[in-house]
Design goal:
The protein has 89 residues and is mainly alpha-helical. It has one domain. It is built from five helices and no strands. Helix 1 crosses helix 2. It starts with 7 loop residues before the first helix and ends in a 20-residue tail after the last helix.
Amino acid sequence: MGFNGRGAQQAFANFLGVDRGRWNNVECGAPLSKEMALRIVRKFPGVTLDWLFLGRTEGLTAEMARALSEPSKGNDAGGDSPSSLASYR
């Protein structure tokens, strides 16, 4: 399931079960709330809270670490943000 392209933000927000505005705030630099982080971890097995909050890759599965190290196909150049997880599913 990919979310690249027009309407991606709304689609990803729907996927997480939040309003688009809440997800937009995260994409614009608002701190990631614990509640939002838990939604992401539940939707993407292999993603850890340590990675989301601290950038620690030690607890990631090998598959997830590999997917997150690949360049993103969306707006995010590094492939290391919560929104880049969309291309993993």
